[in-house]
Amino acid sequence: MASFVITKRFSGDYKFELTSRKGKTIFTSKAYELRMDCESDVEYVRSAFQTCSFVKFKTTGGKFFFRLVIGDVVMATSRKYTTELMVQKGIDEIVKYGSEAEILDFSNNDFKFED
After folding, report:
1. pLDDT tens digits for range 34-57
2. Domain spanning 3-105: which CATH class is it, in words?
3. What is the model's pTM?
């Protein structure tokens, strides 16, 4: 099952990622100043997968990616893929598992390792 993972960037902003069943990042959101805004957009995206658009792009280096668009707002950008078929597999996984994805919030965790 896919998972939404909320984390805090080094800049202090929050973001969410959708990770696949195998733990690979499928897409990453824009930056959010407040955690509650990030959490509400996770819920919004999770409920809107059936109505969102996936706009595919190709980089000058030959890699492929997509942007998740709801209405006229870009909600997230995918990781780079080597083939257009892999992009489509990522999109298919989102449509199939995204609405059932669990939400994991790691934004408050301060991981410290003992010496």
Report:
1. 999 999 999 999 888 888 899 999
2. mainly beta
3. 0.84
